[in-house]
User: What shape does this take?
Amino acid sequence: MSLNVLLIGSGGREHALAWGIAKSPLLATLYIAPGNPGTESLGENVSLDVSNHAEVQQFIEDNNVKLTVVGPEQPLVEGIADYLEKAGHKVFGPKKAAAMLEGSKEFAKDFMARHNIPTAKYEVFDQDDFDAAAAYIKAQNSYPIVLKADGLAGGKGVLIPESEAEAMEALEELRSGSLSGAASRLVIEEFMVGEEASVFAICDGNTFKVIGNAQDHKRVGEGDTGLNTGGMGAYSPAPILTAELLAKTEKEIILPTINGMKSEGYPYTGFLYVGLMITEEGPRVVEYNCRFGDPECQVITPRMQSDLLEIMLNSVDGKLELTNINFDDKYRCTVVLASGGYPQSYEKGKTISGLDSVNDAMIFHAGTKQEGDQIVTNGGRVLNVVGAGETLKKAIDQAYADIEKITFEGSFYRTDIGAKGLRHVD
Assistant: This one.
């Protein structure tokens, strides 16, 4: 069997997915829409308006595409899988109703409450009730607390104020949309004490297979300080996730999630990201995402020894139970090279130098574009530099040794990616 595949997306996650798919002997041609300079060597970048589902369908039919893989969350929440499947095309990714696990924080919290999935206590307020939200905040006796914009916000719709004054300021930021677009609804949660980690599953509607775990670094500053971002770096596997914790996560969180989605009439297929807080009481859900994490994908995909395309096909065809997923025994660490000002305003078009000098680490492009014979910045998170090693320390060292070779005006990166993982290593 040899088939054409369309991969939708342009970020570091999609470069990593393209790298994994391109290794498959099942692949004929890989199309990436729109892709980035890093994906050009793995397939054919194509210009498609992915929000125009009819245009995507026409491309699929004109190019005999047998599987469409949707990388980012926005097209999934907008229902691209529903549209293409109705037209008779195979899509790897959840349908719109299932994607609401990420598309609406309120939906996710209510779903977890219905199915007794451990998570933080919460209340929900709509835009007309922001005064009630303010009153609720003032009634809290302990800080920090967590404020979340209900919809998609690119990883930037969560604020964790440390005092009532900060909470009222955060409430106004979410109301005005200065961070994430105006929040029509707001979820206020208790602050969970612990360490965050993520577990990733691939699902076929009836069953699931865990495809890896990682720890992300969401805050922009050293020591996990500053604003939330889409992720400044990650490593895999996460030493904090012991075999016992992983088994508990599968039994108490992932299984009831898959069974709950099926019982409510929207079986979940595709990647499921389960963001966890490892508390004294055990793992509790911070959030779900309806796609692979970014930058976690960049450290998990290189560890996979199994055929990624075959796994995706088995997921779409409901045959995951026949699938074995294997990994190598190395650690991976990725460090994100970002544009000055990110996650707030930043300039684009800065010439990137030093890419050719990286010998050992892998590079996944995120926010780049080609201008003549130059590669320039085109986003807040620009590049992912991924180190590998027999130990976490060696993987971290390799990533940092090579990221130092790459420069552009205003570039910055965190220097402590992976440090918290080392605390759990003997």
Observations:
- The domain at 193-322 is CATH 3.30.470.20 (D-amino Acid Aminotransferase; Chain A, domain 1).
- The chain is about 30% helix and 30% strand.
- The chain has a mean pLDDT of 93.
